[in-house]
Specification:
The complex is a heterodimer of chains A (518) and B (319). Chain A has 518 residues and is of the alpha/beta class. Chain A has 18 helices and 21 strands. Chain A folds into 2 domains: 244 residues, P-loop containing nucleotide triphosphate hydrolases (Rossmann fold); 253 residues, P-loop containing nucleotide triphosphate hydrolases (Rossmann fold, 3-Layer(aba) Sandwich), CATH 3.40.50.300. Chain B has a domain of 212 residues. Chain B has a two-stranded antiparallel sheet with strand order 1-2. The chains are: A alpha/beta (518), B mainly alpha (319).
Amino acid sequence: MASASTSGRPELLKVSGLAKSYGPVRVLHDVSLAAPARSIVGLVGENGAGKSTLFNIITGLTKPDGGSMFYRGRPFAPQSYGEAFAHGVSRVFQEQSLILNVPVFENMVLSQERRYTRWGQFVDRRAMIRVAEKIVEEAGLDVDVRRNAGAYDFSRRQALEIARACLAPKHLMGIEDPLVLLDEPTSALDKKDETAFIDLLTRMKRHAAFIFVSHRLTEIREISDTIVVMKDGRLSGSLLPEAADEKTLHSLMVGRDRAQDYYQTNRQRDVAGGRTVCTIRNLSDAEFSDVSFELGAGEVLGIGGLLDSGKSALGKAIAGVQPPRSGTMALKDRAPQRPRIGELVREGVGYVPAERLVEGIVPAFSLAVNLSLPSSDRYSPNGIWRLGKEKAAALDAIRQFGIRSGTPAIPLRELSGGNQQKVVLARWLQRDLSLLILDNPTRGVDSGAKEEIYRHIRGLTTMGVGIVLITDELTELIGLSNRILIMQRGLIVAEIAAPPDAKPTEHDLIPHMLPSAA
Amino acid sequence: MRAAAFLDRGTWLPVGVFLSLIVIFSIASPAFFTWRNFAATTGEAATLLIASLGATFVILMGSIDLSVGAVVLLVGTTAVAGLKMFPSAHLGLLVLPFGALLGALLGAFNGAISVLGRVPSFVVTLGSLSVFTGTALSILAGATIMFDLPIFDTLSLRQTVPHLPNIALWAVLLWLIAIFVGARTRFGRFVMLIGGGEQVARTAGIPVDRYKIYAFTVSGMTAGLAGIFAMSRLGAVGPSLGSDLLLNTLGAIVVGGTSLAGGGGGVQRTFIGVAIITVLSNGLNLVGVGPYWQLVIKGFVVIGAVLVSQDRMRGLIIK
């Protein structure tokens, strides 16, 4: 049943016909791919293409609705991550999972400690250290396993995680040739660390097979033996790295040639000398300090940085969702004050949070209710709720935003992530806004909805609304922003202009985001 | 939000249970299906319904109010003490707004401590349950205070509609008002939103803290009204007034189909819950089940109702 792959090596993992839906939303359709032993499969696709779901299924975190998996030639249907791991399948996440205040060697044998205990209680430290040293040495890493993991920097810790994933199965469980899933491991690495990472992976290929997700297409082409492209839950292509030029990959990922104007840069407004919509002075809180900036009418101010940069916390503070410890914000010509969401909403500020399901919507409630959420001043000026007006506004938004299968009464959980996000955005667009704060507005959103969201953001700027755009996606940050602030550990470390005719590149931004550049 | 849920089991199950109970008890006891018993049960149910109205909003909001029975007792006690102390003042029906006001204050006290002190509402209301009960018992000094005012008979016991004591009419009126408040007002909408997603509501700028205090205030207010109605129906206030309301209000609300996790159900459903709990007590009495075994059975019914509605809940129930 197992067919030989292009590289001629035996297949370690073969999945065929995988399908998965969440309610009416199909996230995987008939996905098949194979990972030969001792090879690297590069997996690319836009956010929301289904890569994470695929990984979740392979590692037992999600059950597929249909399809089959074979691992080492046998049917494979792990019920949990533990079970997948016991077979030598592991996953290295973008966010690291080493425990920082524990020595490296204990991290190396994590979840397998019972192999090093006597009578179920006493830990054999020396045996643990021996095996950890063997792993580190074989991976060619210069690390003292007795030191705490926290003593090493991000890229070194990541190398340790990869070494653990590739070699721990062999040394701890006697499993040769494990399968390692890498989930955007390089998105937070600079050029130097990226090279080191690629070297490590090339070395580790002798011990393991990889499926490697990355948004960096150059790197994918350099390192992969085959490249698989996903789009909207389907496999849209499988090609050899030689054949995979950036343009081809792109059209497979997006389904058409990327429009020059995906981010509608031609609609980017020249805001020099215009009105100021908001002035932020010396905002400080636990996760950021002394942040000051001004935002012009119609300007998109991008804020970038790593996960621990404090950019999301800053967004919450500006919106007044978590009022900052100190500092002020002044809207237009109003007096500076400590931001508080309730008052700010009345004065024309909107906030789209990053965690849609926790902060953005009540999934069990109807579209109309989710849409009118911040607008009691419109729907209930005297305490009585105007259901008719609310319904009419919902019908309007459904039409205006093209919310697929939307009705005013439909519970929002029955819509796709993209359509849910359109509701969150529409919620603010029905108000008279002067400032909109967006935190990762296109996270988990398909490419169609993404484009629609960009169109509305541009539309807002034309009306003179100031936009603060906080995002992890660098292309989006660059494409949409007039100006980009980069944060690092709570401080603004760089301000980069991004005019339509001279956009910075990702490589211009990344060095500012990393601690080593500080 | 709920039109589509018309035929789900959260709606028909309580109705089915109610009808089954009627049939079972009618067969088991000849005294059950009589006008006399109808008048007695509806009077009983009316107090429970009034006391449960505000508490439903609190549960809908994802919090809980365990002090309803204690508010009933304290308000009833204070009212009767006032009537005794100023017999010449002809307070009469004035005790009704007084009861509502005192109850509202006690509820606001619960809400303010829970919200401003960030204390889970079950802890606060468990504490105030003890505080209110203790205060009332020390006023009563363990005795039952009787009184006899015709105006109260008219309020509660007279049957403007044959076989139906007036108190039941008042209860239904208040229930209808509460339904309107729940479905058509900003208060009702915010309470539902807080229950469905407190973080979402905060992030959208809804004054969550203020509305939480409002909901506890409303709960105290309906409990206070229930205290006055209970007092007027019984013509006396004794130490045991309201003692069964802790379990009965929670039971009625949950059995009616309001989710303990918040955000699901509504005050319209509490009616059928009240009917079930009351018929259950009354029927068990009539077939001769002792009061202790009734406690056991009612406890299981409440737990069972939570279990049945569990699949509609998200995550843990944290009060």
